[in-house]
Automatic annotation (TrEMBL):
This is Cytochrome b5 heme-binding domain-containing protein. It holds the Pfam family Cyt-b5. Residues 6-77 form the Cytochrome b5 heme-binding domain. SUPFAM superfamilies: Cytochrome b5-like heme/steroid binding domain.
Amino acid sequence: MADREFTRSELAKYTGEGGQPAYVAIDGTVYDMTNVEAWAGGKHHGNTAGQDLSDVIVKAPHKKSVLAKLPVVGKLVD
């Protein structure tokens, strides 16, 4: 895992808009969604990058199975 630490306010900057990467946190790990086609523009099925989506992913049809394919950029700390 990458050593970078993100607070919630820092993570909120990474929305995938205005040239920023699209990052989301799941269970304390921050993933880079920038090059995931389904996350184009930092949005995916009503969810927006720059947030902790731990509660959301468990309701998704794919659950956490997609996480192993994603680049890890750090961890969420509060």
